[in-house]
C-alpha cells in the first residue's frame, strides 16, 4: 500500500495547468526576492507584494489558484492569506475541504487510486 504525502494530497485538490504563472509579473524575480515580497515575515509590510499584483496580467488566475489551494500562504492575486480566508468562507468547495480531516482526504484519494488501478 502506498502512503500519500502532503504534496500528492495538495495536487489532488488544485488545478494542474499553471502555465499562467509564466505571464506573472513576479515570474522574473529571484526566489529570495519573491520570498521577501510575497511571503513577508511577521510585522513586515504586505504592500510591496500587493503593488506588484495590482498591475499583473494574470492576477485573477493567481487569486483563483490561491482560493482553490488548501495550503497556500503569502500574497497571491493581490490578497493576503487573511483576505482570502474571508473570501473563501462561503465557497462550497472550501466548506467541503474544510470539513475533511487530512486523514480523511488521504483515505479518499487512496480509495480513488485503488479503484482506478
**SSE pattern, N- to C-terminal:** HHHHHHH
The total beta strand count reads 0
Low-confidence stretches: none
DSSP strand content: under 5%
Major pleated sheet? none
Structural class: mainly alpha
State the helicity in percent bands. Answer: 40-55%
Number of helices: 7
Rounded mean pLDDT score: 76
Number of domains: 1
N/C terminus separation: 12 Å
Verbal overview:
- With 117 residues, this protein is mostly helical.
- The chain has one domain.
- The protein contains seven helices and no strands.
- It has helices at 6-12, 31-38, 47-54, 59-68, 81-88, 92-99, 102-116.
- The longest helix is centred in the last third of the chain and has 15 residues, at 102-116.
- The two termini are 12 Å apart.
- The mean pLDDT is 76.
Amino acid at each position: 500500500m502506498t502512503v500519500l504525502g502532503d504534496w500528492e494530497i495538495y495536487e489532488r485538490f488544485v488545478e494542474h495547468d499553471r502555465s499562467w504563472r509564466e505571464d506573472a509579473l513576479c515570474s522574473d524575480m529571484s526566489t529570495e526576492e519573491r520570498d521577501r515580497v510575497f511571503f513577508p515575515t511577521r510585522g513586515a509590510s504586505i504592500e510591496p507584494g500587493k503593488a506588484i499584483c495590482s498591475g499583473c496580467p494574470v492576477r485573477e488566475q493567481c487569486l483563483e489558484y490561491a482560493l482553490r489551494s488548501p495550503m497556500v500562504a503569502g500574497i497571491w492575486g493581490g490578497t493576503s492569506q487573511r483576505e482570502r480566508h474571508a473570501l473563501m468562507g462561503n465557497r462550497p468547495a472550501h466548506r467541503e475541504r474544510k470539513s475533511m480531516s487530512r486523514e480523511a482526504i488521504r483515505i479518499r484519494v487512496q480509495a480513488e487510486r485503488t479503484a482506478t488501478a
